[in-house]
Design goal:
The protein folds into two domains: 115 residues, P-loop containing nucleotide triphosphate hydrolases (Rossmann fold), CATH 3.40.50; 194 residues, Zinc Finger, Delta Prime, domain 3 (Up-down Bundle), CATH 1.20.272.10. 57% of the residues lie in helices and 9% in strands. It contains 15 helices and seven strands. The strands form two sheets. It has a five-stranded parallel beta sheet, with helices on both faces. A two-stranded parallel ribbon has the order 6-7. α10 runs antiparallel to α15, α11 packs antiparallel against α14 and α12 crosses α13. The longest helix is centred in the last third of the chain and has 22 residues. It is globular, with a radius of gyration of 22 Å.
Length: 355
Amino acid sequence: MGRTLRHAPAIVVVPACHDGRVAETALDDIDFDGTIPGVVLLVGDDEFLAARAVDQVTAAARRADPDIDVVERTGADVGAAELAEMVSPSLFGGRRLVVIADVQDLRVAVVEQLVRVIRSGADDLCLVLQHTGGAKGKAVLTAGRDVQATEISCARLTRPDERLAFVRNEVRRSSGSITPDATALLLDAVGSDLRELSTAAGQLVGDTGGRIDAAAVTAYHRGRAEVSGFAVADRAVLGDVPGALETLRWALSIGVPHVVIADALADGIRTVARVTAAGRGNPYQLAQRLAMPPWKVKRALSQARGWSDPGLRHALEVVAELNADVKGVAVDPGYALERAIARLRDARAADTRRG
């Protein structure tokens, strides 16, 4: 166990998932019961679960210490000098929560430096380290486990029963209930993407008053339309034309309205543009400033790589034209969507060549 400061709330190193105070997986609610671990390992390759775990760990830490300073970085962007600055004691005192995503992408010298920090420990520092779980950068996981870090699984859900449990849990998080047949029907309708399932579950709880049965899932099938539009937009914003077109055709085949998909594309581009214009900074501070959920800001920051200001301006023009096309200007709204996806790719690709 690490040393404990006299003034509460204390930061202590707690054992990984064995004292009943913290969740074993990002599927569960995470709470530290008034204490903040010295090291938290988020292990797994599911982007949604990792982002949720970071949000929950940060929220739990702020409940324990409202004045805690949060710093968040991505492994590939952290150098030795920056890591030293991130973990150094603050001139003004106080506690720090240092979040490093994708620590497997840290350079070898920085991994060695981070391992020394983990093993030495500090009463005013909590390290939250997200690792996909592979062999690369495994020294970080070994060091964390050696000091009995709190470990939270963010592993991808591969079995149908795991995804069924996820849907039930998402409904419970929104203070609702769902019947077994409705759970299976929702999973069949939406697919295996956890973010889409979470969105659909939350929407159904809100639309039904909290009690979801098979009839409700069928009646509110429009919820799936909005989610499918997001799936198309996610791929289009990244320049993945084959993936976006495949998802688009699937969405249209199940009756998703053209205008819903166009709105999702516009929302994706506008979100990246807003986050990019806000400048660099802590995703949580940006989320507060932009009045967006932290996960949405993080996703936009990731999607923004490869875009520049001229390309985003062009992309905004593309989605504005698309809005008119799907509302009656274009003879074939389906073709208009396909053309817009290709134009978005071209705008992004042109920016990459200039960069």
